[in-house]
Amino acid sequence: MKNDDSLSSDLSIEPLKLKHLSMLRADNNSKYLGIFQILLCKKWFSSLESSLTNLIPTRNSTCLVAVERYNIIAYILATPINRRGTCWCISEPYFIGESISFSRYNLLQNLLRKVLYKSNINTQSFLTSIKTNDNQNLSVIRQSGFQPLRIIKYWNRKEDIKYRKKEYKDNFTWEKLNEENSQQIWRLEQAKESINFRSIFDRQWHDIYEKRNTLTGVIKSKENNIIAGLIPSVCPQNNYSLELIRGLAWDERLNQSIPNRINNMKAGKSNCYIETTSEDNKLNDILHKSDWEVSEERVLLGRSIWKKQNGYKLKSIETELLTNLVGNLQQQPELPSTIHIENNK
């Protein structure tokens, strides 16, 4: 297999088109035919939105496919994560065939290059998540300018546990997401995130509210204060993937309110995943004691595109935010990431 970055004449990376459905039919690949039909419809909507980008931010996914000798080898998705389309989440590559000339490493390189530099995506920032033990894909992602932001644990309820619905006690209540508490939980989220992370994913309260579902909501104290919540994931990996967040100060009532909520929620959904950061030992301990188990760990990585200002000076989005906060202070060099990923032994 080739290990250079150039594309051979037999391999092309191109946006999803109607002809690709014919390729799948010719290969009798019915597994992906339905998926591609849905993606193609979304692609048409995305193209229409792109032509009206100044009026309507693009909200639909973009799909790029790798084609070799009239066979689809892989595809990758990019999806906006906020209403303004200022940040997009890039999926891992989906391999549906084996390349004759290229390794999967090189295919991911070329797919990423197409998404970042040659697609019609007009955005400032990108996010992606990779399994912590996928050293090959992590290497490609890091070479493309992505920096690790945090490590996410994905929790799933143990299958052999019987679920019993419990009533809440008077010291806390569960409330589904609405416009008011979406703003409150958004402020809670903003307080715990770094400036760098906030500047990349650029989520506002209405982004949380618009992506609510039957499982999202907040835990409120009897004083009517929000102490925790389940909100839509920034970069979801599953149909029901929720982020469990809390305030900066630990509230002892969470030891009771979180288990009650997640176990009652589980009575209705069998394929729900809860996300926590690896550093939040208190939340992780609660989930572990509540008979939830970690299904996988992933690294969330982000990339901010440097943009030109005043025709000559380049600044990153993070530098702009810091400059606005502290005025015209002398800029300091960017600090290295504090996340270290250990290689599997």
Protein described:
The protein is of the alpha+beta class and 345 residues long. It folds into two domains: 11-123, Aminopeptidase (3-Layer(aba) Sandwich); 154-300, 3-Layer(aba) Sandwich (Aminopeptidase). The chain is built from ten helices and 15 strands. It has helices at residues 18-26, 30-51, 104-118, 135-143, 179-192, 195-201, 205-210, 254-266, 281-289, 317-326, and strands spanning 11-15, 62-68, 71-80, 87-90, 94-95, 125-131, 147-157, 172-176, 217-221, 226-232, 240-246, 272-277, 292-304, 307-309, 313-315. Strands 1, 2, 3, 4, 5, 6, 7, 8, 9, 10, 11, 12 and 13 form a 13-stranded mixed beta sheet that branches. The chain has a two-stranded antiparallel ribbon with strand order 14-15. It comes from Prochlorococcus marinus (strain NATL2A).
In terms of DSSP E residues, the strand content is 25-35%
Taking Cα atoms only, what radius of gyration do you get, to the nearest Å? 22 Å
- Proportion in helices: 25-40%
CATH fold annotation of the largest domain: Aminopeptidase
Distance between the termini: 27 Å
Protein name: N-acetyltransferase domain-containing protein
Organism: Prochlorococcus marinus (strain NATL2A)
Write the layout of secondary structure elements.
Blueprint: E1 11-15, H1 18-26, H2 30-51, E2 62-68, E3 71-80, E4 87-90, E5 94-95, H3 104-118, E6 125-131, H4 135-143, E7 147-157, E8 172-176, H5 179-192, H6 195-201, H7 205-210, E9 217-221, E10 226-232, E11 240-246, H8 254-266, E12 272-277, H9 281-289, E13 292-304, E14 307-309, E15 313-315, H10 317-326
Parallel strand pairs: 4-6, 11-12
Antiparallel strand pairs: 1-2, 2-3, 3-4, 3-5, 6-13, 7-12, 7-13, 8-9, 9-10, 10-11, 14-15
